[in-house]
Amino acid sequence: MTESTPIEISVSDVHQQLSANDIVLIDCREPDEWDAAHIEGAILLPMSQWQQAGEKLAELSGKPVVVHCHHGGRSLRVTHWLRENGFPEARNMTGGIDAWSQEIDPSVARY
């Protein structure tokens, strides 16, 4: 990847890269949303707690990071923040977990 890494990534590309352990998938939704539905292998780092997430983010430094939320709005904001704070190739999963449920894994509950 280069500086021109697109900010958006499709759920199918995330699925492929997650299966190959090529990315770290961050779920920026809140714990109650995580409890309702989550993607196997994702790491929960709620957007509301990013101020305190410094240690966890330091562990992810240098790794390819993809962020998702419910539909993609919050995760896009987090992705922009990450790109400005040491993760220049961070990407947003287009459509969020809702698209994941529809296109990849229908066993992940929609809400």
Explain the overall architecture.
The protein is of the alpha/beta class and 111 residues long. The chain has a single domain (8-102), classed as Oxidized Rhodanese, domain 1 (3-Layer(aba) Sandwich), CATH 3.40.250. Helices cover 38% and strands 14% of the residues. It is built from five helices and five strands, in the order βαβαβαβαβα. Helix 2 links the parallel strand 2 and strand 3 (43-44).
Oligomer: single chain
**What is the N-to-C succession of helices and strands?**
EHEHEHEHEH
Mean pLDDT: 94
* Strand elements, count: 5
Question: Which structural traits does this protein have?
Answer:
single chain, 111 residues, alpha/beta, Oxidized Rhodanese, domain 1, five-stranded parallel sheet, 14% strand
In short:
The chain is an alpha/beta fold.
Strand-helix topology:
Elements lengths: L7 E2 L1 H9 L4 E4 L3 H6 L6 E2 L9 H7 L4 E4 L4 H12 L6 E3 L2 H8 L8
Parallel strand pairs: 1-5, 2-3, 2-4, 4-5
